[in-house]
Amino acid sequence: MTEQRSAGAPETFTKAPAIAIDSDAGMPAPVRAHFPGEEPPSGLRVDDLGPGDESQPHIRQALLGEPFDDPLVPGSVRCVACAHRCVLRPGRTGICGVRQNRGGWLYTTVYGQIVASKAEPIEKKPFFHFMPGSYAYSVATQGCNFHCAFCQNWQMSQAHREGFVPESRNVTPEAVVDEAVAAGVRSIAYTYVEPTVFIEFALDTMVRARAAGLHNVFVTNGYETPESLDLVAPLLDAANVDLKSANDAFYRRVCGARWEPVRDSIVDMRRRGIWVELTTLIIPGLNDDPDEFRAMAEWIATAVGPETPWHLSRFQPAYRLGELEPTPAETLVMAAQIARQAGLRHVYVGNAPEVEESTTNCLRCGERLIARSDFAITEWHLVEGHCPRCKHVLAGYGMENSPVVVRG
Ligand code: SF4
Predict the structure, then answer these.
(1) Which residue, among 20, 15, 28, has the nearest Cα to 238 in the 3D structure?
(2) Is residue 261 in contact with ligand 1, taking CB distance under 6 Å?
(3) Would you identify the CATH topology of the domain 113-353?
(4) From CA 193, how far away is CA 54, in angstroms rounded?
(5) In a mutational test of the pocket of ligand 1, which residue from 197, 201, 227 has the highest number of ligand atoms less than 8 Å from its CB?
(6) Could you tell me if the CB of 100 is within 6 A of ligand 1?
(7) pLDDT, tens digit, for every residue of 34-80?
(8) Which of 80, 82, 100, 198 to mutate for ligand 1's pocket (most ligand atoms within 8 Å of CB)?
(9) What is the model's pLDDT at position 51?
(10) Using an 8 Å Cβ cutoff, are 331 and 300 in contact?
(11) Element (H, E) at 232
């Protein structure tokens, strides 16, 4: 990164941290939680689990656990990886299905057990203002702390609820980075399910990715706690947060979560210098009320910034909402209009070819800066991150020297 982009760019609302490549980077300093004791506390039931053995490489002691003093159930721990802050009695698993109290200690049960890995355009995540034209290596384990009725990746995220075990393979963080480098990507995306639930594996991979000159991005539901952001923020370059609604009732009813923690972590990420883009899947009858769009857009414009890219995406029938119709084109157009009226400068419409909006224009003079089609860059007019006409700096990360592949 150079300082060129920030100079003379007062409107650029956020600036991601520079990438310092430390070839000697090692594991993050241990941030072990305090556990009730070195040995499983007395009073456990016979079916309480103990630590995993060496034949289970995906079972590791977890970060972000803390003792929970329950006189009736000794050995209870609280997981603070996400805003559910589950209290787990011995033998119990958290809402995400992949973090478990084993013998009074918090464990992750999916360390390095990935169910998906592939290289794909960064625009597909979607990121439109982060290293445009580059590829990311996407990885995911199973499990998720939300149970959205419309989940498009439910075979990975909800496997524990649906009672099946998805195909997986065990990999090390080094192997993921090697695969990413071999694939020629510029970043690793922790995605498809909420990455916070596999934060230990993500962190170990992020350290090694940094050392190899790769960036790290989260595609997240924004349910991080300040404690988990403390761990990942120094290594996290960008996050696309799934802003499902600005309505607490929607979050509770459809996702099994709450709105306020999402709101707070989006603001917190921005405050920490992480590049943030937002995505909203618009679902007919559930979150398509114009007044709610307006409230959401106004909140983004004031609390996150008017240059925050907002991706509005068409719902396709999936999981428990398989009977619903896809989002009508006019709803997407209406939502985009409301977003612009609220002051948002970079509003995109996706997953709807007939009304797609994927072009970036200069917010100051209207000059066409970047055009996209099918997740590829088709036009690139930025000059070192600036508008060629008025010299305004486009908000984003890696906009001045991205390895853009111009097609067509
Ligand atoms: S990460 Fe899982 S176990 Fe931890 S608080 Fe969230 S849902 Fe609960």
Answers:
(1) 15
(2) no
(3) TIM Barrel (3.20.20)
(4) 26
(5) 197
(6) no
(7) 333 444 445 544 345 555 555 678 888 899 998 888 888 888 999 99
(8) 82
(9) 53
(10) no
(11) helix 226-232
Among 17-21, 28-32, 100-104, the range with the most confident prediction by mean pLDDT is: 100-104
> What Cα–Cα distance (Å) separates residue 277 from each residue in 30, 93, 254?
30, 31, 22
Average of per-residue pLDDT across 259-263: 96
CB neighbour list of residue 392: distance below 8 Å, 6 or more residues apart: 9, 11, 362, 363, 364, 365, 386
Instruction: Please indicate whether residue 79, judged by its CB atom, sits closer than 6 Å to ligand 1.
Output: yes
Residue spans of the domains in the chain: they are 32-109, 113-353
Distance CA 379, CA 385 (A): 14
- In angstroms, the CA 197 to CA 209 distance is 19
Structure-token pair, residue 281: 């899947």
pTM score = 0.89
Of 9-13, 121-125, 129-133, 198-202, the range with the lowest mean pLDDT is 9-13
Question: For ligand 1, is residue 84 a contact (CB within 6 Å)?
Answer: yes
Whether 157 contacts 207, CB under 8 Å: no
Average pLDDT over residues 173-192: 96
CA of 227 to the centre of ligand 1 (A): 13
Tell which atom from ligand 1 comes closest to the C-alpha of 196.
1
- CA separation for the pair 270, 240 (Å, rounded): 11
Average pLDDT over residues 321-338: 96
